[in-house]
Amino acid sequence: AERVDVVAVTGLTKRYGRRTVVDGVDLHLARGSITGLIGPNGAGKTTIMAMLLGLVRPTSGRGTVLGHDLSRPGDYLSRVGALIEGPAFFGNLSGRDNLHYFARLGGHNRGVIPEVLELVGLQGREGDPYRSYSLGMKQRLGIGAALLGDPELVVLDEPTNGVDPAGMRDIRAMVRRIAAQGRTVLISSHLLAELEHVCDRVVVLDQGGLRYSGALQDLPGSRAEVILLRGLD
Ligand code: ATP
């Protein structure tokens, strides 16, 4: 049987007035894979994610998400989980109680909460107030909230931003566990080095354009070094 990618879009483009912020990007995400969307600030990472999530309407481009037309996000969004910015949680409530609130809000089965807490590595700390969490733990709780609906596609916009190295390791381990369950992960960062050991593939963007797409090990060494050490400038 033909394998159908969870995300299969071509020529994804967004213009604001005369400014092109995403320029003809192709994106193919295989089921269960982890893809890093890498690029400096302003490269267009958030805009690409927002187009997949139906928050921004593409100027042009076509394709499917979970088998449904990209132009009809209402048909697939219930199967997608997203962390766009640090979500708003109640500081005085525990991580677990915050998840209870979001599960109720989203109409999700609250029985999944213990499993989600384990998946995001917050077991043992779930009873502590949210305000006592490190930034990395806060991000993982946000990702936990995105997992409550058992999504097949998980979109994470810069979850490692500002997180210390230990917190980053925890986020990477969590992303691996999420993908090992067969979920497809798209994760962005402005630093390839943060994601290089967790991604199956990387999509490198600069000023809206695609600069490289594929496995990191297929990148010519000198080029990989430039991107890893100095970015694209
Ligand atoms: P960051 O890491 O800063 O979030 P990014 O790679 O996610 O960067 P985007 O947020 O997608 O980049 O923004 C890409 C470019 O598009 C930026 O230059 C931004 O100013 C511009 N842009 C985004 N939204 C709009 C909008 N609504 N109107 C005009 N320009 C916009």
UniProtKB/TrEMBL annotation:
- This protein's species is Flexivirga caeni
Q: Which UniProt keywords apply?
A: ATP-binding, Nucleotide-binding, Transport
Location of this fragment in the whole protein: 16 to 248 of 324
Q: Does the keyword Protein biosynthesis apply?
A: no
Q: What is this protein called?
A: ATP-binding cassette domain-containing protein
Q: Which family does it belong to?
A: Belongs to the ABC transporter superfamily.
User: In what residue span(s) does the ABC transporter domain sit?
Assistant: 7-232
Extract the GO molecular function terms from the UniProt entry. ATP binding; ATP hydrolysis activity
- Extent of the signal sequence: none
